[in-house]
Each structure stands twice: as C-alpha cells, then as structure tokens.
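PT: before anyone asks, these are the final sequences, not the draft ones from last week. 921 residues across everything. Please model them as a single complex and drop the result in this thread when it's through.
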Amino acid sequence: MSENNYLELTVGAVLVYNFVLSRFLGICPFIGVSKKIKTALGMAGALVFVMTLSSFITAVIYHYVLRAQTMFGVAVNLGFLQILLFIVVIASLVQIVEVMLQKLSPGLYRALGIYLPLITTNCAVLGVASLNAKAARGIWPSTVFGFFSGLGVALALILFSSIRERLELSAIPRPFQGLSIALVTAGILAMAFVGFSGLC
Amino acid sequence: MKKLFSLKGGIHPAYDGKALAREEAIQNAPLLAKYLVALQQGIGAPPEVLVAVGDKVKKGQLLAKAGGFVSSPIHAPSSGTVESFTETPGATGAPVRTLVLAADGLDEAVEFRGIADWTTAEPKELLRKIADAGIVGMGGAAFPTHVKLSPPPDKKIDYLLLNGAECEPYLTADARLMEESPERVVTGCRIMGRILGVEKLYIGVENNKPEAIAALRKAAEGTPVEVVGLATRYPQGGEKQLIRVLTGRVVPSGGLPMDAGCVVQNVGSAAAVADAVTQGIPLIERVVTVTGEAIRHPGNWRLRIGTPVLEAVRLAGGVVEEPGKLILGGPMMGFAQKSFGGTVQKNTSGILLLPERMVRQYESHECLRCGKCLSVCPMRLFPSQLATFSESEKYEDCAAGHVMDCIECGACAYTCPAHRPLVQYIRRAKAEIRRKQPKK
Amino acid sequence: MTTFLAAVAVTALIALVLGVVIGVAARIFRVKSDARVELVIELLPGANCGGCGFAGCADFAKALVEGKTTPSRCAVSSQGTVAAIASALGVSAGDGFRQTAVVLCGGDRNQIHNNALYNGVADCVSAALIGGGFKGCEYGCLGMGSCARACPFGAIEIVNNLAIVHAELCVGCGKCVATCPRKLIRLVPAGSKVHVYCSSPRKGAEKRKVCDAGCIGCRKCQKLAPEVFEVAGTLAHVKYDHDHPADPALVEQVGCPTDALLTAEQHLKIEHETPEGRQKK
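LR: through. Structure below.
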C-alpha cells in the first residue's frame, strides 16, 4: 500500500490488512471478550481509544526521540529504546482507560475483567505502533492508521461476538462446544476477509 | 356492511372436523345419578364452600359463594344430597377439589327470580344478577364475566364484541347455540351493552357458519346489535384478534382489551347472561360438543356442570375405535387429559376423543429457520427465536421479545415443519418469568 | 556514555510526564472502593452460586464488609476459608451450618407408573406445566434433570429417570431446591445419612397404586426410634435433628416394608446396580 494515500491507508487498515483476521494480532481479546456483543463493544471502544492515542504519541516519540540525530547538543541514536518507550506509553494509556472505565461503567469494567489490563501487552496495540515506526510514517498518517486499525479490530470483534451469540443458541455437537466452534468460526471469518486482498 | 380490518398471521387447518357435529341439533342430556362439581372453575380466588356432606340441595342452590371480587360462585346442577368431597383432574389436568352430588332424580329447583324488564333496570342490578349467577367466560378462559363488565372508571369502553368466531376445529357448540337460540344471544348482548353503556354492539361470526349468521341477523333486526361475518381463520376467536378484525384497534403489549376500549364476551356467556337476567337461572348447564373420530355419535349436548366426562362420552354412544387422545376444549388450545376422570366445567366447550390412528408422536428437530411460525403468529411475535431463547434458558431475552404477549394459540407449532414444541417452550419461559416476578 | 545518559534521561522524562497524566486521571476518575471488598472477593470461592442469598460472590462480599451477613453463610467455602474471611474482617464466623440437598423420591422408572405419554420438551419445569406431569404420582421425580442442569457443582445425577444427589459434591447452595417444580428437594444438615425417599402426602393405598417405593405410613420406623423419625399422616420423615442424627444402622433394624427408608449410600447403590431400575420388594 502506498503510504500517503489516506483512502488506501484506511481501507487497508480496516479490511485488507485487518489486524485480527489478516495479521492475526490481538487474538486474546478477540477470543476472550467476544461472548456477548455488549462486552465486545466495550472492548472495541477501549481498543480504538488506546490504539489511536498510542499511535499518535508513539509517532511523536518516534520522530522526535528515537530518530533524533542530536539531543541536548550531543549526537545520539536511541532507536534501541523503541519497544521500551512504546510499552511505557501503551501501559499508561491502558491505565488511564482503566480508571475511566471503573468510574464511568463499573459493569463493563467487571465484564472485561483481566482482558482490560491485558491490552497493555496486546500485540495489536504494540503492533500498530511498530508498524508505523517500521514504515516511518508521519505523525498524522500514523494516527489515522492507528484509528482505522482500531476500527478494524472493533469490526472483527463485533462480527465475531454477534456470531457467537447465535452459536450459543445452536445445537452444537459436544466435541465442538465452546471454544472449539469459536475457533473454527474465527477461521472461517478470516477466510472471508481474504476476499478483500488485492483491494489495495 | 361493516368495514373489516385484516388479521395478520393465523392458519387455515386443512381439516377442521366440524362436519362431525355441525348438523347435530343440541340435545338435552338425561339426568345422571351423580354429578362431580369442581369447586374451582375459572380464574380468580377459590369460592367458599357453603354446604357440608349430607346436606340436601336443590337445583340452582348456591354450593359455594364467590371468594372475592375476581371469583365466581358455583350452584348445584340438580337436586340431591352432598355425598362427599373428592379430587378430580381439573381442566389443565391438575387435581381440583370436587363436590360429589348424589342426584335424587327429581331435579327440584329453587325458585328462580328474574328481572321483569331489563331495559329499565339499573345497570348495577343487572351486574349483580350476572355475578350471582356465576357466569364466566365460556369460551375457554373462564374469567368471571361480571369483572369484565366492570371496567375501572378511567377506561372508556367504546365497543362490546361478542365472539362467535368459534375458530377452533371440531367445536360446533357455539354455532348450534347461535343457530338455535339467537334471541338469547342478542338479548344477552344488549343487556351487557346496557351495563357498559356502550352503543356499538357487534357479534363476530366466521363465514363457515352461514346458518348462525342468518339466524342472528334475523334476531338482531331492529336492535343496535350488528352481526358481522368474518373470513374463516384460526385464531380469530382470540380476544385481541377479534378486536383487531372488528375495530382495527390494537391492544397494547401487556394490556387488556379495555385498554383498547373494548370488551369481548363469548356468545355462550351472552346466552347465559340472558337467562340469568330475564329468568334468574344461574349457570348450571352449557352446550358441549362431544366429538372426534373415536366417538360413535358426535353431537352437541346441553350438559349440566359437573357431568363426568365419561358419562358424556357414554351419552354420545361410546367409542367406535381405540381412543388415542382425550382433549377438553378444542384440538388447538384444549388440554389433553390423562384420564376420563375429568368433569364438565363452565368453560368446557368440547370433549374431543381422537382415535389412536390419528394421534401422531412427532420427533422434533432443530429449527430450520424457515420463518413459517413468524408468518402465522397472530401476535406478531417471533416464536422460533423465543423458543430457542427458552431452550437455552435465556429468559430475559424472551421477555425482551414480548413472550408474555403470546396467546398460546398454537399456530406456530401447528405449522412448524421441524415439529418443534414451540408453544411448550414459550409456556416454560412464561412460567419462569412469572416466577421471577415479585409477588403482587 | 552519552547514549546511555540520554537514554536514561529520555525514558525518565517520558515516564514522569505519563506518570503525572495518570495521576491526574486517577484523581479525576476516582472511585471510592473498599479494599476489604476486593480482599473478600479474593478469598471467596467465586462459584457465584447464590447459595448465600445474594446475587453472587461480589454482592456477598459487599454485604459481608457492611456487616449485613456472616462469612459462614457461604455454603461453598471450607471451614478454613470461612475462618480466614472472618479474621480478615475481624468479625465472627457466624452460626451457619453446612447443609446438603436430598431428593426425597425413590420412584425410578420401575417404581412409579407413568400415566401419560410425554413427548415434549425434555425438562421438568416444562413437563410439570402439562397437566401436572406425566408421572402417576404427582409428588414423584420427573427425572428430566432440571435440577442436575441447575447444579453448579455437578452434584446431581439422573439414574433410571430419578435424580440422586451425590452428597460429597453437594455444598448446599439450594439452586436445585428452587428449580424443582415438584419441590422434592430439601436441604438437610450435612452428614445426614438416612432419608425417607418419599414426598407424597397421599393415602398409602393411593400411593401403592402408582408407586412401589412410596412410604405407606406404617409407623414401623417411628415405633423403633421416635426421636429420629416422625410420621405425619401417611408420610414418614426423618427429623434431621442435630442432637439425634439418624444412625445408618437403624435402616436395617427398621426394615421398611417398601424400602422408602434407606441410607443415601444404599439408595445410590440400588440405582447404580440395577440399570433397568429398582426391583419391587
């Protein structure tokens, strides 16, 4: 995908290179909180928020810290700090989301449980920051990419949770009940998304 | 000609079995030696029993008085002695306390006193007469009639509708009643109209009973009562469905007919009202269709309340082949019985005995998502989904799908190609939801 | 060296900024929470069975901290857990005692005669809605396993169309008691070994017509051990008295004519060893 075309960037992030269904990143909340649409929506919201903001902040850090040739008048190369700083940023953002959720929606906070703090180490969040850095995207393209990648994850989560709510009502052969049928469904859903390849 | 509104949903059973008893005039049943009078008939508080074992009673004497406002008294069907108290299966099959009356064969009655001129009598007086006569909804629900006729003052009633649809297959009792004594039905209708202060009186009759319509029209000439022929369709006789067809109004979800400004009464109840008001006769007998392919002589009988089901079957000549299923009421909404031990109650519209060859045991399969139930549901619910929710015990989702509005007409289960027991699933959800509700 | 110093400085700076932001956010969105509630939730088993009468473990923990209930009300917790919670909160454990459920019906498919063919939803609640159920005895276990499905601990087994509680798995939460449409399940003091497996108050002769394992009210048990057994009408029951627990040896001594009186162990054994159902005595 060419880098500066926002349309390609957004369509690519949501559909063609969907984080969950094409890149297989962020599977943990995808499986963990997709039992009910309501919790999936909450998780999707949290992920969009964290991914957008972290993309923005990590892009700023990337451009002004990690790629800086000189700092305080001395020559430096701090590229090796990338993972450390990105994690620090993401962890702080997740912490903020957590305190906000606890106050604003205690029910959702309880429903998300361990999966909320786990966003900290979520590969989708770190992945979007790393991909931005790898492609050396500018700050705004990075933010847009982060936002739409988040939307892509949200789309996958909501689709999947809707299917799982229906699955709950279906008669499923015993060996397939629970997680097994969910994983089979996820596989089929991923295959469906292959249909978007080549779009951009 | 009155404009009719369309009824959404419903079914047309391919075979309605009405031909079996359609042409049979109503016959009076001979007196029996024993009557088993169930002491809880219909909805409401159980009545208070006034007699004891050994008491001599006369026909029409009060056996049990109403146990509250939403309750209905019970009268002796014939003269005789109170022999004992026992238990018989009630309409739903659950045991009810029952009074055994050993009849003396004299059929000696208490003095009945009617109101000489009901057209000038106080509505209150008329209403008391109806309450004292123990009249209930004779179509099936057995809700006390006087309660329906006493809407709270803030509800304005615009229409009184008499239900002569008799959309249940096999049943012909109402049809015969309308054909043979239309003047009683019309009088009852006008009395109830006077009590409610309603101008618009309609009797809805399905078009498959042209003789009944003609007889009623003749009797209604020169009165404000209008007889309306309806296209045949099940379950048109449901209160809410009849209101929809005749007035175009929709009863709000969770509401009663009076919320749509209507009161609906069965034609049988109307005839009983006429008897009670003009002659003072309490409700001690009713027309019952004893029918089914297993019955030797299907027909319509005027049976005393408390007639054992077995006696009624005997009256109709007994069985011609191995019976497979006994149903009190119609085949769609009636109750299958476990034994012949039941009795005729005020809401027993039919005794249906089907032969074994006609009773099929279906194996139910998974929902095919064909949507047939959706298209026949007269309440515009989503039966298959409600049933699936109920199956996986998601009763909150059932409640959100308005499961409590289901009238349990059975159209969905009738039409389901996968033979899913949809109504049973829905009834379970309703029972669970009711159980979780705080007691009033 | 400069790279090292710069790295430390940059990381520290960024961490400081983010730390301040989190601090501010935490101040704005502060939730008053009682650390003790969290602690109690940690200690509780987390079965969310509702046996304590509250909506779940979290609700129970809240009520505990507010002093509205006592730790021993939790049916699932062991003695140790109850003591731990009590000491953590500085309250007394309370005088709740452990209970176990028992299905008071011995009518398996061989014992109670059915009087209708039932081909509907395979669930006791649904079956009971139709004419009061298909079993001849209206106080008989329908055996469609609504209680077994409701049990969060898998303590109820359906053998020969009859529900039987495995006392060693039962914690006495009472979910099955609420589920049974015929009210056949009763909570009794844990450790009760002897039960009268019948709940029908009907007359002995009526019971005999429909069931071979029903109590006929012969009073044999009451005569032998009146401090343990009591016969009300035509139905005997164990008094489940703490001071006079029924001795399993009593069952042998009484010699119940219909085998309605059994120890839990015997009952389970009979049903397990005769897959076609228990034989008439």
